[in-house]
Structure formats: C-alpha cells, structure tokens
Amino acid sequence: MSTMNIREFLDKNKTSPYQFMIIGLMFLTVIMDGIDVAIMGFLTPELKRQWGISNLEMAPVLGSALFGLAIGAMIAGPVADKVGRKLVLVCCVFTFGFFTLIGATSETTTSLIIYRFIAGLAMGGVMPQAATLITEYSPARSKSLFITIVFAGFTVGAASGGFIASWMITHYGWQSVLLVCGGMPVVFSLVLAFLLPESMIFMVFKKKPKHKIIAILNRIKPYAANNDTTFELSKNVVQDSNPISVVLSKQYIVGSFCLWLTYFAGLFLVYLLGSWLPTIIEEAGFSLQQAAIIGAVFQLGGPLGSVCMGWFMDRYNPNIVLAVTFSIGAFFLILMSYLSIYYALLLVTVFLVGFCFNGGNTGMNALSSIFFPVSARATGNSWMHGIGRVGAILSAYAGALMLDAGWGLNQVLLFLLIPATMMVVLVMVKKIWYQQPKKTEIPALIGALE
User: Does some domain include residue 445?
Assistant: First the structure.
C-alpha cells in the first residue's frame, strides 16, 4: 500500500493535458463572467437615450449587479468549502446566464434592476471558485501564472462586451446584446457539468470516495494510483472545519484585511472607469463609437497585465510585484489626465492604466489563493471578492454623483489616486507583517522597498 500527497504529486509532475483542459474551461468561464459583469456599462448610453433617464437613475441598474456580486461572493465561498467547488460554480454560471438573458425583456429600470441583482448573486460565486480550482490543480511553480492567465479572461470578456455592444446595438438594439451574452453561459454550464472535475485536494480533505480521486489522478498521469493507494494532506493544512473561523483567526486576520481592503480599493477604481468611462468620454465631446472603443481598450489592457503579473509573481515576491504595478498605474492616471484631449494618446494611456490596475487586480486573486489554506481557500477568496464588490457598488454611485456635479475626466482621474495609493500601502503592509520567504529579489528598481 502506497501513500500519496496530492499537492506533492502535482508539484513533482509536468502539467498534463487534462490539467490544461481544466485551465481552459476556467478561462472560458471567466470570459463569460467578464462579458456579463461589464456589459451594462456599454449599454448605459443607449438605455439613457431610449428611456430618457439620468445618470443617477441609471446608477441602480449598474449597482444592482454589483450588490448581488458582493452578497453572492460572501455566500458562495463558505458553501463551496462545504459542498464542493464544482457544484457551486456550475450552478452560478447557469444562473447568471439565465438572468442576463431574460434582462432583454425589461421595459423599465425596475425590472432590469431585479434581473441584474439576481444575475449578480450568481456572478459573485464564479471567479473565487475558478481561482480555487486552478490553485488546487496547478503545480506551485506556475500557480500564479495560471491564475492570472485565466483571470485575464475577465478583461478579455469585458473588452469583448464593448466590441459586441458597439456593433450589435447599432444593428439589432441593446436587447440583442443581453440575449447573446446571457445565452452563452447557459449553454456552457452544461459543458462544465460534464467535463469539469471536482478538486482532488478538496475531496481528500472531505474524505470523499477514493475511486473518484483515483480516476482523476489517472487522467493526469496514467497508472499514478490504484485501489491500494491512500491519500494524505500536507502537514501544514489547517484542519478547522469552520472556514470562517480560519479566515478570521489570529494567524490570518491581518492578511485577510489587507487583501480585502486592497481589492475593495482596486474594484472601486476599475469599476468606476469600466462603468462610467464610456459616458464620461462621450460627454467630453467624443462620439458614441469612440467612447465604446476607449472603454473596451481600458479592459483590453488587463489580459497582458494579468499574464505579466503571474510571470513575475511566480519568480519574485508577489507583494512587491503588485505594489510596484499599482504605483506605476497611479503615474499613468496622472498622465492620462493631461492627455485627455488627444484621442490617440488617450487610447494609449487608457490601455496602460488597464494594464496596471486590471492586471494587478487579477494578481490579487493569485495572492489570495496562495495565502489561504485549503480548508478556507474558497471562503478567503470569496470574501475578498465580496468586500471588493462593495467598492464596485460604491463606484457606480460615486461615478453618477461626480458626473452630476459637473466633474470632467481630469477631476475623476485625480480622485482615483486615493484608492490607487491605498492599494500600494496595504499590499506593503501585508508583505512586512508576514515577511514571506523571499524568492529572488527584483533588483535595483525596487530593492529599496525590501
């Protein structure tokens, strides 16, 4: 009889085609999540025109999904740590797709608010479970890279939503956008139900039937395990059965709050730009199509930024990598405010702001997944998302208030230096508090931060 540690098995072996299939499924899932989360920002100018509503009247439509996201994330994490990552993820994907789809039947802001809230509840459970599954199927040497590549799918989706909306609204109306963007995840949830496995590490932790774990292991590496194989967890796995008490324990509380508040500030910043940037740009005198393209380019900077974050975080101290990235992003916010009258230069700086902040926020998911133990990983990730979504909710209303107060693009961008600075400080506090084992240090440029 042999004993196998699943984590050591994954770390010692090459990443298999089966693991890449799981990563690919999560990438497609996150793309669809990104489309549906961001889509209302692209529909806002058209809905305001057709329904004759103001920015303040539109804010609840944008905020309802974000409010649902916050609640859904807080609930989905503890549930996933109890019943499994796959079940929660599949149910969430089907539900957010269905309620996005029927949002096309809305004739008033009230009905659209309700549909977006329910869709948001489900969307709140998607990205944390995706991060958890990737973490529990990836070798330690490339864990951050895989998470950030997959989460780059969110900004790919959000950017795709801008291009889809800019074309379909003109030809078929805003309803067609919701029909397409809602129908895709409904169908894809069935694909996930058949192809996606449950986390092996979770199944060992919960003492699930051994034959299910063996079947997955042998898909990763033929003949890796048999009926005589027994499974064990790493010695440092926290055995507390209550994931909430683990996340809030003395060992994890400081890091938890640093992660959550950083994500709060990060989502406030990127959602304010993602939701209101097309409207701000249009009100600055650019065309509707130019405004939609600028909004899409902001999202498009994220995928490249995300991949860069993962590569650097697997090689250097991840806290330092993120602090430097957020600092550079703050610089580009300032630069963007000075170049706002030049469309071509605005496209470049918008892309770079998206690179730093969308990419950096993706890196936060890798940082969170590495930080929390298996017994509370889904809860820690989900609560980071839930608290972050509160920042996103506030951004919807803050953006409306700024515009109604007559703020232009320059004032909005300079205001966003506040959350950008918070992000740098909080990530460094976490780094200093825990003094994580050093990887190769980033030389020269950031040596002074050590």
Answer: no
